[in-house]
What does this fold into?
Amino acid sequence: MQIDSGDTTWILVSTALVLVMTPALAFFYGGMVRKKNILSTLNLSFIMICLISLQWVIYGYSLAFGPDIGGLVGSLEFLGFNGVGAEPAAIAPTIPHMLFAAFQMMFAIITPALITGAFVERVRFKTFLVFSLLWATLIYDPVAHWVWGPGGILGADGLGALDFAGGTVVHITAGFSALAFALAIGPRKGFGNVSFGPNNIPFTVLGAGLLWMGWFGFNGGSALAADGLAANALVTTNTAAAAAGFMWMLVSWLDNKPSVLGIVTGAVVGLVAVTPGAGFVTPLGALVIGAVAAPISYYAIKFIKGRNLVDESLDVFACHGLGGFWGALATGLFATTAVNAGGANGLFYGNPGQFFTQLGASLVVIVFSFVVTYVVAKLLDAVMGIRVSKNAEVAGLDISEHAERAYS
Amino acid sequence: MTKKIEAIIREEKLDDVKAALQAIGIVGMNVVEIHGHGRQGGLSLAGRTGTYKVDMLPKIQVNIVLSDHNLEKTIEAIRESAVTGEQGDGVIFIYPVDEVIRVRTGERGKEALMYEGDIDTR
It folds into this structure.
């Protein structure tokens, strides 16, 4: 194990790129809510940088990547980044262990921020902070260990599921937790009767653009090296996003004019879907993954919103849950060892077993995320209340939760 | 008699209406950005998927106070410049005004409404 300065440089840069994705997400979401809730919505994402950075350094990293306990969770050996220093570790043998931990910290931050789209405009901030800390501890850290940690039950040392950059760990956990939380908290006042128009679509376009850029670090950095695999991940990422944005434009054109909000949403869905396969599939594989992802999420939103089934406000479940699930399954179809000798072949390359491995791992994480989130949300509701009062909701969370106005 | 015209027009028609009013010598006016709807009841916009309804649309309210012998000519100028023929062109309200006082000079009534080069002096 020797430090490679090229690899180290790229992961340092990637860490910064992935950090920016959280404020980018804040703008992506912030543009879609009503004017009276934009600060609240921006903050739900931004505060995750503060909260989870601390959690990760104190004990989160250790739970996720510490020495294995029964394949389920890491031990507390790395408490407070103890022993996580300049020397490389086996998990990333050419960069400082501390850099690997910092890069992973950015994933731990953005994942609970993704969930916030489900409960914007009504969540009680104090309870949200407690929820996010519990969610990181009970769901993110263990699932990261299962899939990526040493000895984890779902990853290379266990079932053998492929997840290059977090289709399962990040997007499935966030997406299905979003659905569970939305069911627990209930719809916004007026849901089904009034339309909640976006206050600033330009913010959403800006956020989507920055997310796309940051995703080069998210997926490209997950090669953990500055090499051909990183280049492959970057190209597959870009290709899937392009295909999905373009496809969303086409399907939305069938229903109305091609909406800009729709096009940028499609691009993000493509980024989500290619995340698990970015370092295992070819650029053409990624093109199909992105092109299929867009109609899946599009028609899921239309189905859910059209019937007012659940006020999953900013479509986190449809975009990240289903996009991540499709991406995980598609990795089991399109993966090829020609791209990544350390990976596996998928169904289209003669290995149907990989598809079922992907399906099994996804279902475990889907059920786990959904159930634990629902139980935690319901418990917190009983103990401290997960939503603001009717009057506070009508006034808007910017005033009622933060005593601020975005625009004066 | 002094009257007030309150004309609700399309926001994109403001420049045309201003030009038409200037052309006949209406010098003083103010405008307010408002939201509302009339018979058309709003509009559908494209969302992430399909369409969603918006019932309060942005409009411009133009306020003009003038002597009533200029009223019909002014109404005609506004109507001609604001019309597209589609629903949502707006509406014009006329109110009686009790008194007008110019803050700088204290002039009242007709004097307070007169400007150099306006509709009555040209």
